[in-house]
Amino acid sequence: MADRLPGMGFDAKGLRVRLGHHGRVRTEPGWRLGEKWNAGLRDYDLWVVWAGRGIVRFDRAGTRTLPLRPGICLWMRPGGLYLADHDPERPLGVTYVHFRLEERRRGAWRMLPAARLPGEVHELSDLEYVEGVLRRVRQLAARPEAQAQSVAETLFLGLLMDLESGLLQAPATDRVTARVHRRVCTEWAQRLREELPAARALSGLVSRSGYHPDHFARLFRQATGESPRDFVIRTRLEKAAMLLRESELTVTEVAERLGYRNVHFFSRQFRERLGRPPSAYRQGR
């Protein structure tokens, strides 16, 4: 496994970010990251793996490899080599952002040299936090307003500073004593996110993890900062808000799609968490 190199340190006051193509995807059957993709890399590409299994090779001989799994973050750069495959039975889920990180030198903005960057590989201690920041960055970057773009770039630069500081790196003791537990909870957070309609039977889903429900709840809180129930409610309502903003589904249809049996309960929970009922939220989008 490639080790994280210590960052050389950079000052946000002298830097700027320019965001490029970004997305959140599941790899398709037959997917592979090959030589052609590497040859075309002209900017930086930040990958955050949130689901699945795979492997990346950092040389053609395969002597430097890294298993890809939830919580792995790659900061890929021009001139590097990243040859990746996935497990077809467990395709990768990846959030990616192409970007330029520039500093002002001799009156012009230029790409920060690779020697000044943190290492290519980071094992995140808080995947949910990073995914939340990236979700907001992508939402803002997709808007046409110049202010939204500026805020997106500022948020993303803050995330890069967080990575560079090492504060997001999983502590060594945590890697030894709790890596398996954290990995299980991260995977189950993603599974709960993907199975929201079925998540009303939370106890049944948790029982499939192989942990006692109370023990699982403690581990889940340590890994994500919230209980499984609160995680499901928050994620479900975030999805509901998105559907109300971006679809023509009725409030009842939104509730049913997310597994609510009672639209009145859904409306009450939505109002308690988001401050207004679904109908008012939609009118104010």
At a glance:
By secondary structure, the protein is α+β, with helices and mostly antiparallel strands. It has helices at residues 35-39, 127-141, 146-165, 172-194, 202-207, 213-224, 228-246, 251-257, 263-274, 278-283; strands at 15-26, 32-33, 44-51, 54-57, 65-68, 72-76, 83-86, 93-105, 108-111, 121-123. Strands 1, 3, 6, 8, 9 and 10 form a six-stranded antiparallel beta sheet that branches. Strands 2-7-4-5 form a four-stranded antiparallel beta sheet.
Which descriptors would you attach to this protein?
285 residues; alpha+beta; Jelly Rolls; six-stranded antiparallel beta sheet; four-stranded antiparallel beta sheet; 44% helix
Care to describe what's here?
The chain has two domains: 154 residues, Jelly Rolls; 112 residues, Arc Repressor Mutant, subunit A. Helix content is 44%, strand content 21%. The protein has 285 residues and is of the alpha+beta class. The N terminus is likely disordered. It has ten helices and ten strands. A hairpin with a 7-residue loop joins strand 4 and strand 5. The longest helix has 23 residues. It is globular, with a radius of gyration of 20 Å. Strands 1, 3, 6, 8, 9 and 10 form a six-stranded antiparallel sheet that branches. Strands 2-7-4-5 form a four-stranded antiparallel sheet.
